């Protein structure tokens, strides 16, 4: 379907495949590296396929990325890992609806707080 954009982050590492991606992209590129790309008359828009990991209090420095949005038309922002809590709504023993995640289902508990650590709750509030 040639009406849809194709994204392949690997072209940054291997320019042999440059033509297969409609977007320039990297994971966790520094704002200065992104700006260097954008200042050099790029042929493709830039999207950070992953640039923040929203674990707890970990989105410091985000303003450096969002400032690029106003400065460069071809900067299209990016995606945040764990933007939304990874939990599902269940009814607990008391009949109350709560959000549950690994370890709440008598399975092996997950490692610390790696499921409900996003910027927004699982219900998107």
Layout of strands and helices, then pairs:
Layout (H helix, E strand, L loop, with lengths): L30 H8 L7 E8 L8 H10 L3 E7 L6 E4 L5 E4 L25
Overview of the molecule:
The protein is an alpha+beta fold and 125 residues long. The chain has 2 domains: 9-81; 84-125, no CATH class. 14% of the residues lie in helices and 18% in strands. The chain is built from 2 helices and 4 strands, in the order H-E-H-E-E-E. Strand 3 (88-91) and strand 4 (97-100) form a beta hairpin. The chain starts with 30 loop residues before the first helix and ends in a 25-residue tail after the last strand. The mean pLDDT is 89. It comes from Clostridium perfringens. Pfam families: Glyco_hydro_2_C. Keywords: Glycosidase, Hydrolase. One of its GO terms (cellular component) is beta-galactosidase complex.
Describe, in short, the structure shown.
By secondary structure, this protein is α+β, with helices and mostly antiparallel strands. The chain has helices at residues 31-38, 62-71, and strands at residues 46-53, 75-81, 88-91, 97-100. It has two helices and four strands.
As residue ranges, the low-confidence spans are none
Mean pLDDT: 89
How many discrete domains?
2
- Beta-strand segment tally: 4
What oligomeric state is this? single chain
Report the end-to-end length measured between terminal Cα atoms: 34 Å
EC number: 3.2.1.23
Catalytic activity: Hydrolysis of terminal non-reducing beta-D-galactose residues in beta-D-galactosides
GO cellular component, one term: beta-galactosidase complex
Domain Glycoside hydrolase family 2 catalytic: 1-124
